[in-house]
Structure formats: structure tokens, C-alpha cells
Specification:
Chain lengths: 160, 291, 747
């Protein structure tokens, strides 16, 4: 009864293929099949943003995408943000602004921040908060996260 | 989630064939942001998910002054609210779709999905109703147009037969001196389901002093999105003034049959209907004056 | 942003280095409980009660075991027998897997193990349970009423420290008394009282509970989980499974938030039992719905407060009654709430009665200063009302009555050195308080709060590496950056740089007993243990330098990372140089530190909230917010600020929107992150912080724990701001838009 589908996709610039049942979410496939556990599950219904990845250039909550839907598509996960050993300016900004405490929401926020700054390199505080509203953090109260995003924008503009 | 099969047809005919043969045990998967949560809590248990995203007709997004705006059933919100003609001519559609979930939800969710999910709280449906939108529905051997105001029949239920799919939603070209607006009330600033939602559309007389036409539709205050025709009847031909807008607010409240649930009490919802109807009408009037 | 009082100059303490686990956390490499993998892993899920109160008549899992890929099912039958039904171990086992009765919606009944999570879910669907429905109590008022169905039929109420023969839903009634409140109220010129109610809320950590357990054929059990304390987990596993602690190892992985909610264990024993039956490791992850319904939220209930004052504002008497929901099993934080309710006020006449009430809801657990926010919501509003009636500035009123060193708390202890006055002065002088708030529909509110902070055991060990770095092994799971703060203290004591400290959080086999990361104790106690370990290393290094130079130990000086001889200026070497010589001069050097501090200073915190509300919709916007807290000494100021901001935002959510919404059947309707409304980034402004430092003399660096007191004042500060803006005082939470419209006539 249980048939698996063959999915071919590009993840962080590399060709990846896997077998999955249609009912397995992209989040499940990334974590349990492909072995990329950086993307986290917080709620499994699109309300916390811990599972945010970039799919064909747009952020999506990977818990609400099925693995079978990304056949032929391009994904970026948290594992693909750094350039080898060199951290991305957003990652540096998060570290230096102490924008993480437990860190579980951090991959989602970094992905969302990358998508934001790719789309709008100079966002206002309101625009930052709007864009990040789907990412819940319970530890920081968002203050240092917002500062880290503002700092990230500066670093990227300065060629960080 | 129960085991489910998955098909992704690349043309409309193939999709309609599947629906003709297996429509009763098939659910259409567009953005997935509503349907997948339903499958996970086993509120729906189809045998097959039919992915509509590669059907060309369902990806159409175009405007022309004669036929208006055509939005394919699988067009995601992020494309819709970024489209130049939508921004120019259909501000209220931007109002509605920019607030449904957060940015990543809008990366997937579709107008077709919001319509067919038929939640009483759907943010896009009141806007479509007041703009006089229709749904173009196809089955293998037939097609029909249904006004959005007649589309929903109850919470989660629509006039769709199991062998049918919404190919596109069509919104007429806006009239001269008209403006439309959508707003909702939520306890936080984003991410919540509407406690009450109000879509309004007005057409002003040439001198801008009277209502030529007024349409109001409400979300979350009845088993389906409500089209408050009593307001249309009342405001047609009347002066644009606070007193008439107040009356419209009262008529909105009178039309509602709200329930009390975890998102609001019936009394609070009725109160908000009045408040938001007045506020939204004023915004629509502003926009009409600017156009 | 900070106002540092302490003039001492430190080299490492007070700086803001990047945390050692930071790179892993921003790249997704850090391993949390759900990320754990091991060969042969099975997946478990738990069947949970749909009823709030029912007798279990039968459980039939034959059909479940027939499903391909389902390997085992466990129930309470698989747990050891209880000698009686009412000991704390019986209650503990009863919460892990229900025996005889289910006591709340979400109560665990059976566990299954299967080859993958979807198959496990199918197995749950196939288990048949027969219930005899009983009527539930869903509030303290309902439970305390004589007509309510008794939840623990064999339990008796404890009163004033003695067991009675009364069988009801009150587990305990206790009282604290000081002076004579009747006399105090007689002397008062003004008496204000009020009953303030709150409802159940959740800690809201983003990571659901996750655990993997392996019960090997040799009888040893290993658990890999996200936890606030691997040693307490080991103790609990031992009690519940009746296995000696020497046979249990708990390996803590990174943890995605806890706030007290990940102190108890839930699925760990079930995973262990499934592992015992299958011979394979079993991983059980909670869904978000399970997190809401089946873990340990913080109670609702009421706090009634009555305060008498003279016209000049001096308090003459304070009385309170607190009744909190324990949930299905005894142990709400009403005791702690009772200790904190009047903690900020110096008054010789106090009387506090507390009731721990059993209700058909999940067993409550700690949530950041447990009990204190519920109590402060009452006291701080009564004091605010007094300040308005007497026309005295609310900060001045509190300064007049503020507790100081030597004043007594109602439950007995005298306050050691504490910084409430300093916190209040900092509030008075803060930019926000000095700024005027103009315009209609706006209001400002202030409040203060207290948490004792606990000591408890911590252990550390330090080894000196040949390159002069040190490996620091500690047992405190790191939720907020404590690895860094502990490393900083070791670095400061040893006189080496922070970058030369390599901290590791270790499992229960590798380091001495370390209590929970909670209770605002980690930077204090584990930092203290690290300091002791560093001290031991320092003295051993000094001895070794003496040996190498052939001089007496007393003639060796160690300062700023340099060993030198007091008599011969030619003899000196750095820490790094000496480290290189260790192997050849007698072998490597290591040190340990263990502590169970009895003297711990508490922390006072304040909140200033400016709000604006929309009279027609009731929506409240936070315009400005400042958190002020006494940190003793801020080891890493960014992490102290982070604690203050995080606790403040949890308090804001608690004040405005968070609640467990139950229907009449006792089912929680909003067990999703959509309808359990925690603040998003768009709901908040930046959160200003002011760190006050009144050092705690019982800690080598003056540290006071800061994790908790900051969540205490936000809810009353916001309630006081709403009172200012609307003219209406809200004596219940949450103060959501519907409540505001209803109580202010929506105009």
C-alpha cells in the first residue's frame, strides 16, 4: 500500500535525491531522510516559523510543504547559508548581537532575514518586524534579533 | 496523517479526468497551508492529493480593462500582491492577501485555496464578494461561472461538486469613482485568524457627494462570509455623511449571526462589525475620491 | 542601557564575548533532542485521554500490535507497582501513564513503538479504551466546592502542616503569619482589597519535548533528551522505574527553551519501557498539541490581597489568600507565590493563607518565578490603587515601604543584602519614567517583583591543556548562554582569557551532581563551582611553579596570568608557558569545585509600561517598555539584558492575550500556536533594559541570578497602565481586547 516517490531536488546548490511517502512533509524529509537537521519543528502547522526554508527564492514553512512537491525545485536551508567555514554576515551579526539564547528559532530567523535582505536591503524596523512576524521566539523578546537584522543590513551594505 | 497518494498533472484535462473518476476521495492541493493541517488532524482523509500547481490555466495572472483581473486557482499570494495591475486597480485584494498568515504562508497560499477552504473567517472572500467576483469552474464535460457571493454554503462547504475545480477567479474591472478596502480585527498584529473581517466597496456619484453603490461583506460572523445587501439597499443614492455611515454600521450588526468561541464572543463580534464597517467604508470612500 | 554600580574592574567579567556554542547554533549544526540519531532507532507515540475526568474500564491494544511495523505497546501495567496510591512516587508514575483514572485531557494512557512515526500514529488510532465519564473540576472555585467530584479518592488534605481526615480536592492549606494583622488594619487610615484571578498559561518554549531512551540487556538505561537538568532527570527516572541511579545515564542535548517546563520528565520513562520491550532505542517527540495539553503549564487561580496604610503611605497590615490550580496532581507553586506576594514590602503585620487545589487539568510545573507573577498581579495593583487614592507617586510609595537588609519576609527568613531600593531609584531616574506620556487613550503603569533565586548543588571540573587552554566540564544545560557566563568566571578567577576556556556541558557520568538550570541559579551556583575549580587549579599551578623553580610555595606570586617569584625577579612564566611544562614536571593538573550554597540573595525587578488603547476595539499597543533588574554583578551584560527582555515579553503576552481556553467539556480549544497567542515581533517595541548591580556578598563575584524576577512585574505594570488609560482596573487576565471593550463600554 505504501508507495514511495522519487524526488530530485537541489539543496544548498547540490543535487539531492530521496524517496518519500507523499504524506511526509518537506520538513520531515529534510530532517529524517536527507539528514539536514538544522531546520526545526516547533508546531507542524505553519505558526512558529522554526521550519522556514527558502524554496525557489521564497520563504516557506517547510511543515506545510510536502516532500513530493519539491521535485525539480531549489531549496536553501540553514546549512547552506555559511560559505564553507566562513559565516554569512547575518550569522556574524546574530552572534555578536547576542540575538540567540536557546537557539532553536535561530535557523528560521536567519533564513527569514536572508530572504528579507535579498528582497529589501534597507528595511525599516517596522518592515523587519512585519517580515519576521511568522517567526516566533520565546527567549529573546525579539529586541536583539531586530538589532541583529539591522546590523546585518549594514554589514551586507558594507560588503561584509 | 493517513496514507495518501499524490498526483501532479501537467494539464487541465488530465486533472479533470482524475476528478471525474475519483473526485469523492480526492482533495486538491494548491498552497497546502489549509489542507495539510486538516489532513493531519484527520478532519479530511482523502485517498489522493491532486496537486494543481502545474496546470497552466490555474497559473494565469492577467489584467485587461475589459475583462478585469483573472487569477488562476493556484496563483500564490506573493505573486498576486506584487503584480503592478493588482496594486494599481485592486488595492483591497492587496489588503486581504498581505495579512493572511505571515510572509512564508504567503509564499504558498492561494486565492483559490482561500476560497475553496470556505472558512467563515477567510480574509479574501469578503473582498471578492464586494468586488463582484466570479469563479470559473470546470469539470471534464462542463463549465460554469458562479458569483463568489453564492460560492460558500457553510463552514468548509461550497457549491463545488467533487468532479469540479476552480480554474480561475475573475474580478471585474473597477468602475470610475470607485474604491474598495478590506480590514479585519485580530488580537495580535499578525498571524491571527480574523475575529471579524469587513470588505467594502463603494461607487460614488460624479460629484462625489452620494453613494451610487455600496457593497459590504463580513467574515467570521456567520457560517459563511456574509454579503450584507441591506446596506447596499440603504446607501444607494444617499448622501455620504457620518449619519449614513453609522446606519450602515448598525445594519452590518443586524445581519450577523455570530457565535462565541475561542476567538471572540458573539457580542464582541457584533460590536466590531459596526466599528469596522464604518472604518472600512470611510477608507473605500477615500480611495474612490482618489481614483 | 546599563548602570553599573560596582567599581571593581574585571578583565573578563562584564565583557560581551561571543558564546562558545554560537557557531553551531547559527549554522544548524547544534544537536537538540529531536536531532538525535542512533542505529536501530524506533519511534514512539503516546495515546492520550480525550476526557478530563474518567475511570479507565479497559484498554485493548490487540489491533495495534497487528499493524505491520508496530513493535510494542506499554501501559501503567508496565510500571512498578505503587505501595499506595498517594505518595509522590505514585503521583509521579500516575502522570507518566494513567492508572485506573484519567485526570485531564491529554493524560497519557499508553505508549507505542513502531518503525516510523506515521506507523506509530496508526497504532494509536487502533487502541481501544473504554471510559466511565466522571464530572470534572475546571477551576479552583469548582474544585473547592463541596459538590465537586473528588479527583484523588484516597488522598487527604494537609492543613497547617498536619494531615487531616478531610478528603476533598484541596491538597494543602498552609498559613504564614507575622505580627497582628487585625491590629494593623485598625491602625490604617485606608484599606484597599481586591481578588485577582488568572488562568492557566504555558511557558511557550518553541522546542517541543524530545527524548530517546535505550534500555540495554545489561539493565542500564541511557536517555538523550532536551532537559533543564540531567541529574534531576536521572533521579526521577530512578524513582519512577525503580532502577538505581548508578544504572541510569542522562545525556543532555541542546535545549530549545524551558523556563521551568522542561524540569519534569514526561515521555522519557515511556520510551525506556518501550525500549526494554523491543530491545531497541526509542525516540518520542511531542507535538505542539501535546506540549500544551500534556506537559506542565503554570496555574490559574486567584490571589486576594488586602492592604492597610496610613495617610502618609506607610503600610500597617497586609493580608492575602492564594488558591492556585495544582492540576491533576498536587504541587502548584502556591507556596512560592505566598512567599513572594508581599516580599517587596516591609510590614510587621502579615497574614497569608495558601491553598493547593487539585483540578482536572495538566499537572502544573514551574514557569519562570513560579507563583510570583500570579501574586504580584494582585499586590502591585492594590498598591497602585492606594497610590492613586492617596495621591502619592507609585514609585515613592514603594520606596517608603521597600524591604531592606534585615527586614523579614512573611514566611520567616530575613532579607540579606538586596537591591529593591536601588531598583526603584533606577526606575525613577529612567529615561522612560522621566518622559511625559501625552495624549488620549494612553497610560503608564509600573510594578515591582521578586524572586528568591535558589542555590542547590553544582559541580565543575577543569583540566589544564598543554597549550595553556583549559577544558571546563560542567553539568548545567545551557538554555540562555550560561556556558559562556560560567566560562567567563573561570577565566576571571584563573586570570586567563575567555578564549582559552573550552566549556562542555557533560552527562551524568562525567561530572558531579548539578541541579536544574532554573531557579535563577546557574550563573550563581555553577559559576561559583567553576570559580572553586579554577581556584584549585590556580593553587596547584602555583605549587608546580614553586616545584619547578625549587622555591617555597609562599614565594610564588600569580597575577594577571603571570607566575613570578617574590624574591627573584628573573623567575617568571606565563600560564601558557607553565602549562607546557606540566607533563615533564609531574603530570597534568586538574581541579574540581562542588557547592551547595545555603546563602543566596534574591533579585528584585521592575517594569515600566506605556500603552495606548483603541477604545472602539479594545486593542492595546505597547508604546514603550523598560525592564529594570538587580543582577548583583552582570557577568555577561548581553545575556543579562536578554533574560530581562525575554521575561518581559512573556509577561506582556501573559497580560494581553495568553490563556488556556477551555470549553465546558474541559477540552482546551486553543492548543495551537495560532490560537494560543504569544507575542510576535510585530507586537512589540524594543525593550529597554537597566541593569542595577547590588552585589550579593555570598558569591565571589557578587552575582545574583536574573532569569526569573523580570517576568513578575510586567503583568501588573500593564494592568496599571490600562487602569491609567481607561479608568478601569482589571482584576483578571488576560486583559484582551474583548475584555477591554466589555468593561469600558467600547467608547
Amino acid at each position: 500500500m505504501s508507495k514511495k516517490t522519487h524526488v530530485q531536488t537541489t539543496i544548498n546548490g547540490e543535487a539531492v535525491e530521496f524517496l518519500c511517502e507523499p504524506r511526509q512533509s518537506l520538513l520531515e524529509c529534510l530532517r529524517d531522510i536527507v539528514g539536514l537537521t538544522g531546520t526545526k519543528e516547533g508546531c507542524n502547522d505553519g505558526n512558529c516559523g522554526a521550519c522556514t526554508v527558502i524554496l525557489d527564492g521564497r520563504t516557506v514553512t517547510s511543515c506545510l510543504v510536502l516532500g513530493v512537491e519539491v521535485d525539480g525545485k531549489e531549496l536553501t536551508t540553514i546549512e547552506g547559508i555559511a560559505d564553507g567555514e566562513k559565516l554569512h554576515p547575518i550569522q556574524d551579526a546574530f552572534l555578536e548581537n547576542a540575538a540567540l539564547q536557546c537557539g532553536i528559532c535561530t535557523p528560521g530567523f536567519i533564513i527569514a532575514t536572508k530572504a528579507l535582505l535579498d528582497h529589501n536591503p534597507d528595511p525599516s524596523e517596522y518592515e523587519i518586524r512585519w517580515w519576521l512576524a511568522n517567526n516566533l521566539c520565546r527567549c529573546t523578546g525579539y529586541d536583539k534579533i531586530v538589532r541583529a537584522v539591522q546590523d546585518s543590513a549594514e554589514r551586507i551594505k558594507a560588503g561584509g | 496523517m493517513k496514507y495518501v497518494d499524490y498526483e501532479r498533472p501537467t494539464n487541465l484535462k488530465a486533472a479533470l479526468e482524475i476528478l471525474q473518476n475519483n473526485g469523492e476521495t480526492t482533495k486538491i492541493l494548491a498552497g497546502g497551508t489549509d489542507i495539510l493541517t486538516k489532513l493531519r488532524i484527520r478532519r479530511e482523509q482523502p485517498d489522493l492529493l491532486l496537486d494543481s500547481k502545474e496546470i497552466p490555466e490555474l497559473n494565469e495572472l492577467s489584467y485587461n480593462p475589459d475583462s478585469g483581473l483573472t487569477v488562476g486557482g493556484a496563483v500564490p499570494f506573493y505573486k498576486l500582491y506584487a503584480h503592478a495591475d493588482v496594486i494599481k486597480y485592486y488595492q483591497s485584494i492587496v489588503d486581504s492577501t498581505k495579512i493572511i498568515g505571515g510572509i512564508p504562508i504567503q509564499g504558498r497560499a492561494t486565492l483559490g485555496g482561500n476560497l475553496c477552504n470556505a472558512a467563515p473567517s477567510a480574509d479574501a472572500i469578503p473582498t471578492l464578494i464586494v468586488l463582484g467576483a466570479t469563479a470559473t469552474i470546470h469539470s471534464l464535460n462542463d463549465s460554469r461561472e458562479v458569483p463568489i457571493s453564492e460560492f460558500c454554503t457553510g463552514p468548509g462547504s461550497t457549491i463545488l461538486n467533487t468532479n469540479e475545480i476552480v480554474v480561475s477567479i475573475n474580478i471585474p474591472s473597477p468602475k470610475q469613482n470607485s474604491g474598495a478596502h478590506y480590514m479585519r480585527f485580530i488580537p495580535r498584529n499578525e498571524m491571527d485568524i480574523a475575529v471579524v473581517g469587513v470588505g467594502t466597496s463603494v461607487e460614488l456619484s460624479d460629484d462625489g457627494s452620494k453613494f451610487k453603490d455600496a457593497q459590504v461583506s463580513l467574515a467570521s460572523v456567520a457560517p459563511t462570509p456574509l454579503h450584507v445587501t441591506s446596506i447596499t439597499d440603504y446607501l444607494s443614492g444617499k448622501e455620504i455623511n457620518d449619519e449614513n455611515i453609522e446606519k450602515a454600521g448598525e445594519l452590518a450588526k443586524d445581519a450577523t449571526k455570530p457565535i462565541s468561541d475561542m476567538r471572540g464572543t458573539a457580542e464582541y463580534r457584533q460590536h466590531l462589525c459596526t466599528v469596522l464597517t464604518k472604518r472600512s467604508l470611510k477608507q473605500s470612500i477615500e480611495r474612490a475620491k482618489e481614483n | 542601557m546599563t548602570s553599573i554600580k560596582d567599581p571593581k574592574k574585571y578583565n573578563v567579567i562584564g565583557t560581551r564575548p561571543v558564546r562558545p556554542d554560537g557557531t553551531d547554533k547559527v549554522t544548524g549544526r547544534a544537536l537538540y533532542g529531536a536531532d538525535f540519531e542512533i542505529t536501530g532507532l524506533l519511534h514512539g507515540k503516546i495515546l492520550r485521554s480525550p476526557h478530563p475526568h474518567a475511570r479507565i474500564k479497559s484498554i485493548n491494544f490487540d489491533e495495534a500490535l497487528k499493524i505491520d511495523g508496530v513493535l510494542a505497546v506499554v501501559t501503567s501495567e508496565d510500571l512498578p507497582d505503587n505501595p499506595d496510591g498517594i505518595s509522590s512516587i505514585a503521583y509521579g508514575r500516575g502522570n507518566i501513564l494513567a492508572k485506573d483514572k484519567v485526570l485531564y485531557v491529554g493524560h497519557a494512557i499508553a505508549g507505542v513503538a513502531a518503525i516510523d512515526p506515521h506507523t506509530a500514529e496508526e497504532a494509536l488510532e487502533a487502541i481501544k479504551v473504554e471510559y466511565e465519564i466522571l464530572s470534572p473540576s475546571l477551576s479552583v472555585e469548582e474544585a473547592m466546592d463541596d459538590s465537586s467530584e473528588i479527583i484523588h479518592e484516597n488522598a487527604f488534605m494537609k492543613e497547617f502542616g498536619e494531615m487531616t481526615t478531610t478528603n476533598n480536592n484541596i491538597d494543602e492549606h498552609f498559613q504564614h503569619k507575622m505580627g497582628n494583622v487585625s491590629k494593623g488594619f485598625e491602625e490604617a487610615d485606608l484599606v484597599v482589597e481586591g481578588k485577582y484571578s488568572t488562568v492557566m498559561v504555558h511557558q511557550g518554549y518553541i522546542e517541543p519535548h524530545a527524548a530517546t531512551a535505550l534500555w540495554k540487556a545489561d539493565g542500564t538505561i541511557t536517555v538523550w533528551n532536551s532537559t533543564q537538568g540531567s541529574f534531576p532527570d536521572r533521579d526521577e527516572m530512578s524513582d519512577i522505574l525503580d532502577v538505581p541511579i548508578s544504572k541510569i545515564k542522562v545525556v543532555p542535548l541542546e535545549i530549545g527553551g524551558g523556563f521551568g517546563g522542561k524540569i519534569p520528565i514526561y515521555q522519557e520513562p515511556v520510551a525506556a519501557l518501550l525500549s526494554k520491550k523491543t530491545g531497541k532505542p526509542v525516540k518520542i517527540l511531542m507535538s505542539r498539541k501535546e506540549v500544551f495539553e500534556s506537559t506542565g503549564p503554570t496555574p490559574g487561580g486567584y490571589t486576594w490581597v488586602k492592604v492597610g496604610v496610613k495617610n502618609n503611605g506607610k503600610i500597617t497590615a497586609m493580608q492575602a489568600e492564594l488558591a492556585f490550580e495544582a492540576g491533576a496532581f498536587p504541587g502548584s507553586p502556591v507556596g512560592m507565590g505566598s512567599q513572594c506576594v508581599f516580599a517587596a514590602y516591609n510590614c510587621d503585620n502579615q497574614l497569608v493563607d495558601g491553598y493547593d487545589v487539585i483540578v482536572n487539568k495538566p499537572k502544573t510545573a514551574a514557569y519562570r518565578a513560579p507563583g510570583s507573577p500570579n501574586a504580584a498581579f494582585a499586590t502591585e495593583q492594590v498598591i497602585d490603587e492606594i497610590s492613586k487614592k492617596l495621591n502619592i507617586d507609585p514609585i515613592e510609595l514603594r520606596l517608603l515601604n521597600a524591604v531592606k537588609e534585615g527586614d523579614r519576609r512573611v514566611d520567616g527568613p530575613k532579607f540579606p543584602v538586596i537591591g529593591l531600593t536601588e531598583v526603584l531609584e533606577a526606575m525613577k531616574n529612567s529615561p522612560q519614567y522621566k518622559k511625559s506620556l501625552d495624549g488620549p487613550n494612553k497610560g503608564r503603569g509600573i510594578a515591582v517583583g521578586y524572586w528568591f533565586n535558589v542555590g542547590l548543588q553544582s559541580s565543575c571540573s577543569i583540566t589544564v591543556n598543554s597549550d595553556g587552554t583549559i577544558s571546563l566540564v560542567e553539568g548545567s544545560t545551557d538554555i540562555g548562554g550560561s556556558r559562556a557566563s560560567i566560562a567567563m568566571q573561570a577565566a576571571e578567577t584563573l586570570g586567563i582569557s575567555y578564549e582559552d576556556v573550552n566549556p562542555t556541558v557533560a552527562d551524568t557520568d562525567l561530572v558531579g551532581y548539578t541541579a536544574v538550570t532554573g531557579g535563577s541559579r546557574t550563573t550563581f551556583a555553577t559559576g561559583y563551582a567553576a570559580h572553586l575549580a579554577a581556584d584549585e587549579v590556580k593553587s596547584k599551578m602555583i605549587k608546580r611553579a614553586a616545584k619547578i623553580w625549587g622555591i617555597s610555595v609562599d614565594s610564588v606570586n600569580y597575577e594577571k596570568g603571570q607566575f613570578s617569584s617574590k624574591s627573584d625577579p628573573m623567575l617568571n612564566m606565563t600560564f601558557k608557558e607553565l602549562a607546557k611544562e606540566l607533563e615533564g614536571s609531574g603530570g597534568s593538573i586538574a581541579g574540581t569545585g562542588s557547592i551547595n550554597p545555603k546563602k543566596v540573595g534574591g533579585s528584585f525587578a521592575g517594569s515600566i509600561a506605556d500603552i495606548e488603547y483603541d477604545p472602539e476595539t479594545g486593542k492595546v499597543e505597547i508604546l514603550d517598555f523598560t525592564s529594570i533588574q538587580d543582577a548583583g554583578k552582570a557577568i555577561h551584560p548581553s545575556y543579562v539584558e536578554g533574560q530581562m527582555q525575554g521575561g518581559s515579553v512573556q509577561g506582556i503576552g501573559w497580560a494581553l492575550n495568553e490563556e488556556y481556553f477551555y470549553d465546558k467539556q474541559g477540552v482546551m480549544n486553543n492548543s495551537t500556536l495560532l490560537d494560543y497567542r504569544m507575542p510576535t515581533s510585530l507586537d512589540l517595541p524594543k525593550i529597554n533594559t537597566i541593569i542595577v548591580e547590588v552585589p550579593d556578598p555570598s558569591h565571589p563575584y557578587g552575582v545574583r541570578g536574573v532569569g526569573e524576577a523580570n517576568i513578575v512585574p510586567p503583568t501588573p505594570a500593564i494592568a496599571n497602565a490600562i487602569r491609567q488609560a481607561t479608568g478601569v482596573r482589571f482584576n483578571f487576565l488576560p486583559i484582551n481586547p474583548a475584555a477591554i471593550v466589555k468593561n469600558t463600554n467600547g467608547k
